[in-house]
Amino acid sequence: MAGIENITQLSNLLNASGVSIDKHTNEWFMRVKKGSTDYLPFLTTEYYLQTALQADDAGCRAILKQIIPDIREFDTAECELKDPLGEEKFSPFPRFVHRYEDRALILVTDRCAMYCRHCFRRSFSGGINGPLSDAELTPMAGYLAEHREINEVLLTGGDPLTLSNERLFKIIARIKSVRPELVVRVCSRMPVVNPDRISRALADGLGSYEGIWFVTHFNHAAELTEYSRAAVRRLLAAGIPVLNQSVLLKGVNDDLSSLKELFQKLLRFGVKPYYLFQGDLARGTSHLRVPLRRALELTSKLKYEISGMAMPRFAVDLPGGGGKITLPSQSHPVDDEGEFYIIKGLDNEEYRYPAN
Ligand SMILES: *Cc1c(COP(=O)(O)O)cnc(C)c1O
Ligand code: SF4
């Protein structure tokens, strides 16, 4: 699968379809060329870019927003953090997070097939760590063997499916060898950005283990192509349930009809909408973030327009380690100025989240 990794390739493909690159994007590439560090690299797949160019106007815009970098990624809003989920203190060793009692998360690689401009693991994704080594996996297996309260392991990153099938199966086999009953969640955007990666061999290999679930990341109905449908079908045929996590993004899916179409189409594809996330307070993502006040309005209306099966949980990860909180669509208390919602974290402490 061809990857697109520089501005010349990108602008040639866009120009051929009559789309031009704007000032914000040019400035991003110039800034990077000058030797800026600490940014999320540019990379996408030819397939995903073509999906944008073949979609209708709204679909095209929604996909390009996720692909094309913007100089505003270098801005840091006051409330934004390098470690927006406050995960560091729940990490007994590198690349392993045990934040919730019965679930642990392994960052199996920092590579992705495409770097989503809204990524909230952007301080890890596209970095210098590369794939997990056997030496790094060994203490994780030991920890899982010891911590019997853990029931699920999430393989994430980065995108675990940038690893070869052999490497991925080896990691799963290692986990299963210490705790055969563990549920393993494979979190990958490949069904969206490179559906061919979900080969029959991959699906059957995953399906040969018990308790494997697949979680992917569609944000707009235009991403749900016949190729994505075929990828999902291969997983389902191998006995692997498929769930979806979306992120609410400005100019991508922040209106009622886009969300409705996305979730209803996911259902038709056999994918259960699991979460809709409020954009995390990750650095350089404020131009893509939908104000929480508006997000709550949207999700409370949506609930009455689609079925319970189509409706995901709406959740926010509270900054500073308050945890992932499912927000009921009732009104939330605000501070005196009305600028922050006051939301109780998992530790029962009060956290402040910008409302506007
Ligand atoms: C989101 C998350 C999980 C999984 O939580 P679910 O609500 O079960 O999807 C596990 N660990 C960490 C650190 C997370 O951020
Ligand atoms: S595929 Fe996932 S980890 Fe990779 S850039 Fe996109 S959102 Fe981030």
TrEMBL record:
Q: Name one GO molecular function term.
A: 4 iron, 4 sulfur cluster binding
Q: Per its UniProt record, what SUPFAM superfamilies does this chain match?
A: Radical SAM enzymes (SSF102114)
Cofactor(s), names only, from the UniProt record: pyridoxal 5'-phosphate; [4Fe-4S] cluster
Q: Quick one: which residues bind [4Fe-4S] cluster?
A: 112, 116, 119
Q: Which residues carry this modification: N6-(pyridoxal phosphate)lysine?
A: 324
Q: Does the keyword Iron apply?
A: yes
What are the entry keywords? Answer: 4Fe-4S, Iron, Iron-sulfur, Isomerase, Metal-binding, Pyridoxal phosphate, S-adenosyl-L-methionine
A family per Pfam? Radical_SAM
Q: State what protein this is by name.
A: KamA family radical SAM protein
Source organism (scientific name): Candidatus Thalassospirochaeta sargassi
Q: What is the lineage of its organism?
A: Bacteria, Pseudomonadati, Spirochaetota, Spirochaetia, Spirochaetales
